[in-house]
Amino acid sequence: MRWRASDRYPIISLLLLIVTALQPAEAKAQRLADTDLEQLALELSEPPGQFDTDNLISNEASYLQVLPQLKEIAEPGQAYLGVGPDQNFTYLVHVRPALAMIVDLRRDNLLEHLYLKELIEVSGNRWQYLSYLFGKPLPTGFRPDPAADASVLVNHLRSFPSDDDFFGKSFLEIWSSIRHRFPRLTWDQDRVTFYQIALAFFKENFQLRYRSHGRRPRPYYPSYEQLMTQSNQPGQMGHYLNSESDFRFLKKMQTENRIIPIVGDLAGPKALKSIGKYLKKQGYVVSTFYVSNVEFYLFRKGQFPHFVANVTELPTNQNSVFIRSYFNYWREHPETVAGYYVTSLLQQIQSFLKLHQARPYEDYWDVVSRDYIPTQPPDHRP
Predict the structure, then answer these.
(1) Per-residue pLDDT averaged across 123-148, rounded?
(2) Which of 48, 312, 331, 366 has the fewest Cβ atoms within 10 Å of its own Cβ atom?
(3) Where do the H-state alpha helices sit in 52-106?
(4) In the beta sheet, which residues pair with residue 288?
């Protein structure tokens, strides 16, 4: 396989400016140079914070339940915001934004996204991506089926043996390329963190699960395999590796440096505000903002009002939506699907701001229950 830094691209031409004026949604999807991605990530980021999980993969098995309504509401060709690992990839391949920014308190999340970015860019298809991710070389003469869904991928790749030499050689080439491409965004000592991330995927493969530090693993945490093969209530799979066309869209965004990892606190003084200013300057509207259950922790820290203030700085319209994840620890949500411990929810961002202005949200339950877009038919609720 071949690892190389992205080519550098010239300044936008007059022709492109004319196209932008005529077709703004399409023309805004401009390729960025490696140096542009690096500069944006550095300029928009805040000092990192701590969270008590590795968060290598999601722990939200319900994440696909909002997809039908999300695809109807969210405006393509705009900006996507999200937190955490590659669950964002699934949402963005369905929303089809022109630009995506992944904001997370932990700097390790930025490093993981750079690692996954490199794997996606060098992979010709989904089979190769999983081969590199899990250290499983594809057999000589193997012909990937471009029409295979996620279940077929899992069944095939699970049977292929892992290879220490293949993994070790791949990792060294990945690390070398990342350091070459983003010398100011990464440090030499990051090699240890990159290796720990890569090793977790290699050692645990499809059985990798979300891990907390100092807490017992929950029995409802899904494995990577379960996340890949999950379906929503209509019975449709939607993981970003479920179709070749979705993977190609993701690969194009990564190759063109249009998915930018940022270190930041959603209630912090800089990151979200700076993102809002940048998006306004570029003419973007936030179509989708995946916040997971971050607001739960912001309430615990007394920082929720700062988050609301930051959201007011984002450019939004009537179609801009939050994606939330509510964990039914103490109280079951009306939108909970039977058999799921986590409930995925949608809310219009402008409605959120208006309701808070009229009567400030009192707690996290107030946030997730006062206003949301119904996504589940009554017969699928508890």
Answers:
(1) 95
(2) 331
(3) 67-73, 87-95
(4) 80, 321
> Which pLDDT band, with edges at 50, 70 and 90, does 346 fall under?
very high
Q: How far apart are alpha carbons 27 and 21 in whole angstroms?
A: 8
342 touches 325 (CB < 8 A):
yes
* Structure confidence at residue 234 as a pLDDT band (50, 70, 90): confident
Length of the chain equals 382
Rounded-to-integer distance, Cα 56 and Cα 134, Å: 13
d(CA 30, CA 35): 14
Note if the pTM is more than 0.85. Answer: yes
Which 3 state secondary structure label does DSSP give 124?
Answer: coil
Q: Amino acid identity, residue 225?
A: E
What span, in angstroms and rounded, lies between the C-alpha atoms of 113 and 91?
15
Spatial strand order of the sheet with 321-327 comes to 259-263, 99-104, 79-82, 286-292, 321-327, 342-348
| Residue written as token pair 């701001």 | 353
* For the chain, domain boundaries: 24-380
For residues 68, 71, 74 and 79, what is the CA-based torsion angle, rounded to 10 degrees? 130
Cα separation, 265 vs 103, in Å, equals: 8
Q: How confident is the model at residue 216 (pLDDT cuts 50, 70, 90)?
A: low
**Dihedral, 129, 134, 138, 142 alpha carbons, nearest 10:** -60
Backbone angles phi, psi at 155, to 5 degrees: -60, -40
